[in-house]
Queue: 3 jobs
Job 1
Amino acid sequence: MDKAATASGDELRLDDNVDPSLISNIFKRFGRVHITRILAPQSAKRVFTALSRETPWSFALRDEAGDRNLDVSSLEELDPVARAALAASIDRTATAGFAYRYSNFRLDDHYIAGMHRELFLMSFYEFINSPPFLAFARAVTGVPEIAYADAQATLYRKGDFLTAHDDAVEGKNRHAAYVFNFTPGWRTDWGGLLAFPDEHGHLHEAFVPAFNALNLVRVPTLHLVTQVASYAGGGRYSITGWFRSR
C-alpha cells in the first residue's frame, strides 16, 4: 500500500504486514473479518489522538421522534427531567425495534461542505478514499464496483448502543461495512461489541473493539453493537462507514 501524506505532515498508511489475499479469503468464506494491526503504529496513535482530543462531537439518536442529531450544547442545556425523558424515549424505541444512541461526527458531510478541513480526521477521510486504499478495499472484498467510502467518527459512551440491523438500504449501493477501531485497553465485559446474531437470536460471533483493528462486514449481514456497560472504563472510539458504488 502506498503512503498517503496528510496535511499535518503525519502519514497514514497500512501496516507492512497486512496481507490482502488472506483477508480476502476469510471475507469470501465468512462475509466478515477482524483484521488486527491494520495501520502502521504511529498512524493508529495519531488517529486515536484526533478522536479523543480534537473531534467536535454531536449526539446521534433514534427515538420516537425519528433519527436526530443534537449538538453538544443543546444536549447540555437539557435539565435532568428532559434528559431522562429523552433517554426513556430512546429505550422505548429500542424495545420496539431499531434504535441507537452514540456520539458522532460526519467526516463525509463536513468534508464535502468544505467544513473542518483543518482537522486531522479529514486526512483520514482522504486516505480511505485514495486510489491505493480503494484498490485495497476492492481486493479484500472481491467487489470491483467499489468507488468510494463514506465515513463518520463514532464514540460510544456508557449506555450507548446500536440495535440489530443489516445495513441494506435501497439506492445506497452499500457493498461492505467497515469499522476502524481505535479503543486502547478495552475489556470484553465493558460491552460495545460488534455482534452477529443468527436466525434463533444466538450469537455466531462478536468482535471486541480492539485498538488498531479493522472489521469488514458484507452487506447485508445482521449485526448490532451491544450496550456499553455503566462501569466501562472509557469511550469506544471508531471510524465507520460503507464501501459503496456509484
Job 2
Amino acid sequence: MSISAAMVKELREKTGAGMMDCKTALTETSGDMEAAIDWLRTKGLAKAAKKAGRVAAEGLVGVASADLRAAVIELNSETDFVARNDGFQALVRGAAQAALSTDGAVEAVAAAAFPGSGKTVDEAVKDAIATIGENMTLRRSAVIAVPEGVVATYVHSSVADGLGKIGVLVGIQSSAEKAKLNELGRKIAMHIAATSPLALSVDDLDPAVIERERTIFAEQARESGKPENIIEKMVEGRLRKFYEEVTLLKQAFVLDPDKTVEQAVEAAGKELGTAVKLTGFVRFALGEGIEKDETDFAAEVAAATGH
C-alpha cells in the first residue's frame, strides 16, 4: 500500500521518531500504525517518544545561500534557552545548508546529507534531541532559485549569522550587477519581514481568499441599502484596497511609501539599465501558527512541591 504523508506525520507525533524512520516503519508493516510503533520501539528509534508530545514552538529560522538559490528552514525547540545553545545553532545552520541541495520539501531536507557528518538531517536532529533533552522539530523549509540574478536573504532578530526569528528569501531575475541586485533584494526582504504579504501578485492569491473577502464586502455593502450596481462598485473598490494591503507588488514600499514595491522595482530596473523581475518570496516567522501550551506556573510549582 502507499504510505501517505498524513500517516507518517501521525506516527511521528506518536513516537517522536524521525520522518524517514517513520516512513520505513510504515512500509515494513504495510501501514499498520500499531505495528509500526512496535517496529520503531524494537529498533530503539522511539526513544524520543516522551519528548514528542511536548510543544516545540521556540527555536530558530535559518537561511543559507548558494549561487542563484537560497534556502530557509524552521527548526523548533521547546525553549528559547536551547535556541541560544551553540550546538543547536550549528544544527540549524547545517540543516539550512543541506536544504540548498533539495527542492525545499521538508521530507527532502530531512533525508539530505547533514554537512560533514555522514548522517542525514533527520538523524542529526534525533541525535540533538538525545543530547540536549528537548523535543525538536524540522517544521518547514523552502528553496527559491532563479535562472539569472540573485536570491536575496534577510534575517530579522538575528542571533548569529543567518539565524534569527524571521527569515525571508526574495528571488530577483535580472542580468544586472549582482551586488546591486542583492542591495535591492535585501531592502525588499526587509519590507516583507515587516508587512508579511500573502502573495507576490493578485494572480498568486488563493481564489478562496478573494472569494471570502468579496462575500464579506458584499454583505457589508448591502447593509447600507444601496442598489446592486452601486454595491458591485463598492465591492470592487474594497477589493482593490485589499490587494494593496496583502500583495507584495501592490503594497506601498516601506522604505519609500510614495511608491509601490512594483514601482520601486521598475525604477531600479531603469537605474540599472536592464529589466528586473521579482519571481517570488518566502517569509518564515518562528512559531507562527503553533498552538502553544498555556502553562500555569503557580500550579506547576504547587504540583512539584506537593502543595
Job 3
Amino acid sequence: MRFRAKAFGLHLTGSACALALILGGLYLGWYRWPGWYLSSVLHVVGIVVMVDLVIGPTLTLIIANPNKPRRELTRDIGMIVAVQLAALIYGASTLWSGRPLYYTFSVNRLETVQASDIDTAEIALAQRQNPSLAPHWYSLPRWVWAPLPEDPQEAMKIVESATIGGGKDVIEMPRYFKPWTQGLPTLRERLTRLDDVIYFSKAEKQSLRTRMSAQGLASDERNTLIMWGGSRRLLAVFDSATLHMKALLRPD
C-alpha cells in the first residue's frame, strides 16, 4: 500500500504543478475578474481538473502494483499521462482561443471581446490602420471605446450586417477602436438608472440594489450600464462625477 500511495502522491503533485502553471498563467494574464465569469470557462476548467487531478492520479493508485514488472507499470502510467496531457492541451487551447482581449464600450453597453471573435483579416487591418490598439498574440485585456465609423454609409453597413445579416459588429473590428478615455463623454450620456435597465428581472434588480447598497453605491442615480459576455450579464456601476468604474456586479 505504501508503494501505491507514493505513486499516487508523486502523480498528483506533478499533475497539480503542471495544471497550476498553465491555468495560473492564463488566469493572471487574461481571466481575472470579470474575464472568467463573462467568458463562461468554468466548465472547461472543470473537465481539465477532473481528468488531471482526479482521474489520472486515481488510476495510478489503482494500477501501481509493486509486483508488476517495471516495464509494464511504466507503459500503463505513460498511457494515463498521455490522456492527461491531451486533456490539458485541449483545455489550454480552448482557454487561449477564448481569452478576453477587449472590454468595449459601444453604443449603449459594455461587451467582452474574446480572441476567437476577431478573425485574421480584421487583425491584419487593425495592425495597419490602428496599430496602437491592434491585437497581438501577447495582448492583455484592454478597455476601449468602439464607436461606429464616422462615414454614415460604412456605419449603416456594419449595423445592418450585425443586426440583419448575422455579420460582424463593430466590436469585432479593432481598426475602429479608440482609447477608453475618448469615449467617456458618450458613456456619460448612456448611463442609466438600475430600474431602467431592461435586461434584468425584478428579482435580479432587487439583488443588485442590495449589493449596491452594501458597497455604498447609489441605486437611484443614472450611474449604471449593462455589460455582456455571451449570455452572461453584469451591472457596471460608475461614479457619476468622475466616470470611474466603481463595481461590476453579478445579478445572481
